[in-house]
Specification:
2 copies of one chain form a homodimer. Chain A is mainly alpha-helical. Chain A has helices at 14-33, 39-50, 56-63, 67-79, 101-110, 113-120, 128-150; strands spanning 54-55, 83-87, 95-99. Chain A has a 3-stranded antiparallel beta sheet. Chain A binds a DNA duplex through residues 22, 25-26, 29, 38-41, 55-57, 65-73, 76, 87, 91-95.
Amino acid sequence: MEDASVLHLENQFCFPLYAVSRLTTKLYVPLLKEIDLTYPQYLVLLVLWENDLQTVNEIGNCLVLESNTLTPLLKRLEQKKLIKRMRKKEDERIVTIALTEQGKALKNHAVSIPQKIASLFKNTGLTEEDYGTFQQTLLKLLSTLKKETSKN
Amino acid sequence: MEDASVLHLENQFCFPLYAVSRLTTKLYVPLLKEIDLTYPQYLVLLVLWENDLQTVNEIGNCLVLESNTLTPLLKRLEQKKLIKRMRKKEDERIVTIALTEQGKALKNHAVSIPQKIASLFKNTGLTEEDYGTFQQTLLKLLSTLKKETSKN
DNA sequence: TGCGATTAAATCATGCGCGATATAAATGTA
DNA sequence: TACATTTATATCGCGCATGATTTAATCGCA
């Protein structure tokens, strides 16, 4: 009989990856609630705070998300008056996303979030170096997986 | 003016964590499609293959999911005739989940999946040791975050 | 025994993710 | 200029996730 221990949860990194990702998102919830944002909405704003006036596709490239996810999400951000959606005159297919004044102003509140999140990761027994290694691994995986999944 | 570079995507590990988790789940899709399962459904079966006859709560503890996610998911697995849901006679609040013969049999197909997934992670430039470190970090984070979020 | 508190699961509403498809605009080319 | 092809976004359907609430059963204790 084949050894089935390969099927045990603790012998895979995919499950902890999935679980840690969900639990990490939960850490943001109370902080983002203060500014009435979900985590994916916050990510879109991060992208725009870094570079305003990007197309749906460009935002999607940054976040590895497509229009089927972004379009409804962006409409919600528009309803909250944080962004504007404008079709390009030169090419009516393309929608440019721009921050409103309100959307720009929100950045001032958001700058405190990374610090607060970081403090929640202090009592894990992991060192700064561990986190650096962890992030480097994630970035390598992200880069590889992005290529892998865009092949089709 | 405060330095806003803390808000840049690449300066956080939460975003790559979120993205890598999603992309990793996508790697399972073609493999799981062969046995008509989603990734969360596959995880529930992993738990049951390891220990049959568990309650909804027990499965939830393993996967860090609650009944609001599990109940509908388990009903779908029941529709597929992979599990049975049975209320305990001693305590009618508790639902025990049992694999059907079909559910048990599916394990034989599933044993090949971890191997196939592992092979997709070969060309990342990461060594076996890197993966070991990565998994250890994830497990530490998982354990800490589980406590952190169960506090409330 | 009676009844408030607790517990397990289910239900509800909302917002992602994402495969598949549609729409509409722009492009290439015969 | 016609028309097939490509491109950008949108729409649709479904299955998670999850906070909030509900339902129903059990427990604890006066």
